[in-house]
């Protein structure tokens, strides 16, 4: 069973908040987790922002939540700017404030919604580096030196080095499967970490993904990625479990049905996945350094360059809005020129 969402009511609001503010903060946390189905990380971020807003409001003379108005919101964001906060951080906190005041207004806690009048500083969007197809091929073929490249042999998909390092070989199979699956599907790092072994349908070559807002989608998987994941499941995962059978393991991190495991046999975490991606890219030598998000962007770009329509890419990536996909992906100038020349009667 997948891990349960964070229970926001366990987060104690700051004691200095007036009672109405503290109650509204707790209600908002439950709304984010239970009704909107946001991830624990996102819930924590929202609650941190709103806790800071309400603490500012209380210090500014607001004795109850009903006193919260546009001037308080602007004053709070102004204090963030004076404190040297980045434009992106201020924009995120403004979005948190708007979400909170809209929620409070719908629940009758505010007579009007002051957040609707709140502007947002424009933040220039920096897209991650996109690997060219030949660079991505080099990453997929790369093997980090730490995995014992040049030593031992490959038998049954599991590398046994000169020192009999079956665990290192198992983790190499895992890392290969991670890179292949991220590139094949364009899924988020959090979605990959949440996968269970049963989410992969080898007959249909699809994977069932639980995305943002607890929305489930089915994503196609290419044959090389399926083979890499099966090699990990058949040879790598059992070796990791066996290596920890008599060891201490990880308290509170039982793998259950987790598809990917860490070196200590618990469900893999995003930090480990990022380390895997950076390591494989560094081993390739010719590709710009990027993380799992860069592989997601690379997969989307290569789909578009190969002729996929934007709506299909939207479904694969799990975007609620097509506008998000348009911002998130880009098409190379070569493909634009090619399409123009084929489609325009005066080209």
Fold and architecture overview:
This protein has two domains: 8-117, DNA polymerase, domain 1 (Orthogonal Bundle), CATH 1.10.150; 133-289, Intergrase catalytic core (hpI Integrase, Chain A, Orthogonal Bundle), CATH 1.10.443. Helix content is 52%, strand content 5%. It contains 13 helices and five strands. It has helices at residues 19-35, 40-59, 70-82, 87-106, 133-141, 166-185, 189-193, 223-243, 270-284, 292-305, 310-317, 322-328, 333-343; strands at residues 153-155, 158-160, 200-201, 206-210, 216-220.
Annotation field: number of helices: 13
Low-confidence stretches: 1-15, 146-157, 159-164, 248-254
CATH superfamily of the largest domain: Intergrase catalytic core
Quantity of strands, as a count: 5
What would you call the shape? globular
Residue-averaged pLDDT: 83
Biggest sheet details: 3 strands, antiparallel
Radius of gyration of CA atoms, rounded to a whole number: 24 Å
User: Strand order of the main beta sheet, please?
Assistant: 3-4-5
CATH-level-2 architecture of the largest domain: Orthogonal Bundle
As for the CATH topology of the largest domain, it is hpI Integrase, Chain A
Oligomer: single chain
How much helical structure, as a percent, in the residues?
A: 40-55%
Class per helix and strand makeup: mainly alpha
Q: In sequence order, what are the helices and strands, one letter per element?
A: HHHHHEEHHEEEHHHHHH
Number of domains: 2
CATH class of the largest domain: Mainly Alpha
Strand content: 5-15%
Straight-line distance between termini = 56 Å
């Amino acid at each position: 069973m997948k891990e349960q969402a964070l229970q926001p009511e366990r987060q104690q609001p700051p004691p200095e908040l007036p009672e109405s503010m503290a109650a509204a903060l707790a209600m908002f946390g439950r709304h984010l987790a239970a009704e909107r189905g946001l991830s624990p990380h996102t819930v924590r971020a929202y609650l941190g922002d709103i806790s800071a807003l309400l603490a500012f409001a209380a210090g500014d003379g607001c004795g109850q939540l009903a006193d919260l108005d546009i001037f308080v919101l602007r004053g709070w964001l102004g204090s963030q700017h004076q404190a040297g906060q980045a434009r992106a951080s201020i924009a995120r906190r403004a979005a948190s404030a708007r979400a909170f005041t809209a929620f409070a207004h719908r629940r009758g806690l505010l007579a009007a919604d002051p957040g609707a009048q709140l502007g947002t500083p424009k933040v220039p969007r920096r897209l991650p580096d996109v690997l060219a197809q030949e660079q991505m091929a080099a990453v997929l073929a790369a093997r980090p030196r730490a995995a014992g490249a040049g030593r031992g042999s490959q038998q049954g998909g599991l590398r046994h080095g000169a020192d009999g390092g079956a665990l290192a070989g198992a983790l190499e199979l895992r890392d290969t499967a991670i890179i292949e699956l991220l590139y094949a599907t364009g899924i988020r790092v959090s979605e990959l970490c949440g996968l269970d072994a049963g989410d992969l349908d080898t007959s249909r070559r699809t994977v069932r993904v639980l995305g943002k807002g607890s929305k489930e989608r089915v994503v196609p998987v290419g044959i090389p990625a399926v083979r890499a994941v099966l090699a990990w499941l058949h040879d790598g995962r059992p070796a990791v479990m066996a290596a920890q059978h008599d060891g201490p393991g990880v308290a509170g991190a039982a793998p259950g049905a987790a598809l990917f495991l860490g070196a200590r046999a618990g469900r893999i975490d995003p930090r480990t996945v990022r380390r895997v991606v950076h390591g494989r890219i560094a081993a390739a030598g010719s590709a710009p350094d990027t993380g799992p998000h860069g592989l997601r962007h690379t997969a989307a770009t290569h789909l578009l360059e190969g002729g996929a329509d934007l709506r299909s890419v939207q479904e694969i990536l799990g975007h609620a809005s097509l506008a998000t996909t348009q911002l998130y992906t880009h098409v190379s100038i070569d493909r634009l020129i090619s399409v123009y020349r084929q489609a325009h009667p005066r080209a």
